[in-house]
Design brief:
Layout (H helix, E strand, L loop, with lengths): L4 E6 L5 H10 L3 E6 L4 H6 L4 E4 L25 E4 L1 H9 L3 E4 L7 E9 L12 E8 L1 E5 L5 E6 L6 E4 L4 E4 L11 H12 L8 H16 L4 E4 L4 H14 L3 E7 L7 H10 L4 E6 L1 H8 L5 H23 L4 E3 L4 H6 L25 E3 L7 H10 L4 H4 L19 H20 L8 E15 L2 E14 L7 E2 L4 H14 L3 E6 L13
Parallel strand pairs: 1-2, 1-3, 3-4, 4-11, 12-13, 12-15, 13-14, 15-16, 18-20
Antiparallel strand pairs: 5-8, 6-7, 6-9, 9-10, 10-11, 17-18, 18-19
Helix pairs in contact: 5-6, 5-11, 6-11, 13-14
Length: 513
């Protein structure tokens, strides 16, 4: 079944795939394409609308990402966001310059006033909070455009030429900080592009199963099973597509949480799949010995993962495809196109140059975490697996600041278990989306009993989020934090201080490394 399509042209901003998530939430299928995609190729896709994303460049700077001017003669609705808005103005005869004063630059939550006669804002309140992030300013808007929103500092927060279906906003409607942002995107899709809303995760499942079957044929498939949400859903999806052609290999690298390896084996050992557990703790710790730089850790772990899979594949026999549970946030934060690299993920940016498989299959690559969870439910996975909180591919290696040893891993495993145990006892799991402990490389003076100590500090991290692109730190009750702290310093050797991270994303990331 084919679906109506909205194209999202990527100009290198960090929130770009989040726009795609919002479009899908509204029941419309979308694809993200580089801004360099030839116009004829875009036209061949027959989209009902186009969204220009944000980006880090200035539209007037030499070498900044541009677009074929003929796109504006296509006769298709266009929504420009931040850089995309300024690009539209710049391309159609307006003037964009660097803001000449601090008051003209806008960052963060900003009270914004909307012209609700504009289709983009119809049905919405006349004012609300929007999330701004721009240092450039539309000094002159193009002929034919009218102003559709303003703030105290900026008279042209949004512009529109409704006769041609062109709309531009200098804020980011895709982020949660913008009130009614999804409603604005919905207005663009349904009121302006006339979308039918013919896409859902159920239809995605059917399409993905068909594509996997077409790609794999009669070939053998090896899947990297961690027991986390992403790999579990990938396993269920591929199993539905190719059945016993699939072998799931669980590499226990010794970097998992307390008892997690056994729990994974117990959960998947009952499934009608080929399950192999590889105990590789000594191998990974030897490769990581003395390594403290975060990206180096990720690269080492990524390469060793692949090498272990290659070895298992040879024992199994000819294997044609390697399946990985890569999802959209992994891809975004590994850097795509002109996007800035925040971090590399072991199954995206950390792949070695040589991989001994015919092809790598990533059936979840276009999905965000909440979409992956819904797909898991559609596939009939148990809720305890679908709702499991995220765990990074490199495991506890990136939750230990500095070099990694077996002793440090054991300390962190126990501290992390205590934190999660107290959260469960307080019945707070549903109020936070990811929570964990980090072993810092900070050592400080303390007093235990009658003696002086000089030991490690544990940092606790908890965030609430719907998309993991932005996140707010969780307001855990003080009495719960107190119990966690008392237990950790009493039950975990060599820990004499507990810290709580109260930084949101941005400016921080969810993980420390």
């Amino acid at each position: 079944m084919s679906h109506q399509l909205v194209i999202i042209l990527d100009f290198g901003g960090q929130y770009n795939q989040l726009i795609a998530r919002r479009v899908r939430e509204c029941g419309v299928y979308c694809e993200v394409k580089p801004c360099t995609t030839p116009l004829e190729r875009l036209k061949a896709l027959e989209p009902i609308g186009i969204i220009f994303t944000g980006g880090p460049s200035s539209v007037y700077a030499p070498g900044s990402p541009q677009v074929d001017p003929a796109i504006f003669d296509w006769g298709i609705p266009i929504l420009g966001i931040c850089y995309g808005c300024q690009l539209m103005a710049h391309s159609l005869g307006g003037r964009v310059t660097a803001a000449q004063s601090d008051s003209a630059r806008e960052y963060g939550k900003t009270e914004t006033f909307y012209d609700t006669a504009c289709k983009l804002f119809q049905g919405l309140p006349e004012k609300g909070i929007s999330w701004m992030s721009h240092g450039d300013y539309m000094e002159r808007v193009p002929e034919g455009f009218s102003l559709a929103a303003h703030s105290e500092a900026c008279p042209n927060v949004a512009i529109c030429d409704e006769s041609r279906g062109f709309y531009g906003v200098q804020f980011h409607p895709e982020v949660n900080h913008t009130e009614m942002g999804t409603a604005m995107i919905r207005n663009f899709l349904y009121e302006i592009c006339k979308a039918a809303g013919d896409w859902s995760m159920e239809s995605y499942k059917d399409t993905a199963v068909r594509r996997i079957r077409e790609k794999v044929g009669s070939g053998k498939v090896l899947l990297a099973l961690s027991g986390g949400v992403d790999s579990s859903v990938a396993a269920a999806l591929v199993a539905e597509a190719v059945g016993n052609q699939l072998t799931c290999v669980f590499v226990d690298h010794g970097l998992m949480r307390l008892h997690e390896g056994d729990e994974v084996e117990q959960a998947f050992g009952k499934w009608d799949i080929n399950f192999v557990r590889v105990n590789a703790e000594e191998l990974f710790l030897s490769k990581l010995s003395g390594v403290s730089e975060p990206e180096a850790k990720r690269k080492i772990i990524g390469e060793e993962f692949i090498r272990v899979f290659e070895q298992e594949a040879k024992r199994i026999g000819q294997v044609d495809y390697l399946v990985q549970g890569t999802i959209y946030p992994d891809v975004i934060e590994s850097g795509t196109g002109d996007a800035a690299v925040i971090k590399s993920h072991h199954n995206v940016g950390g792949l070695p140059d040589y991989v001994d498989f015919k092809e790598i299959v990533e059936p979840l690559r276009m999905l965000f975490k909440d979409e992956v969870r819904q797909l898991g439910r559609d596939l009939g996975l148990p809720e305890y697996l679908v709702s499991r909180q995220p765990f990074p591919g490199p495991g506890l290696a990136i939750r230990i600041i500095g070099d990694i040893t077996k002793e440090k891993l054991d300390l962190l495993r126990l501290a992390d278990f205590i934190f999660r145990d107290e959260i469960a006892k307080a019945h707070l799991e549903g109020s936070m989306d990811q929570y964990f402990a980090v072993l810092t490389n900070l050592r400080s003076v303390g007093v235990m009993g009658d003696g002086r100590t000089y030991d490690y500090a544990i940092a606790l991290r908890s965030v609430t989020t719907s998309d993991f692109m932005t996140a707010d730190w969780t307001r855990i009750p003080y009495e719960v934090l107190d119990r966690v702290s008392v237990r950790i310093v009493n039950e975990v050797p060599h820990i004499n201080r507990v810290l709580y991270d109260i930084t949101s994303k941005p400016p921080a990331t969810v993980e420390f490394e």
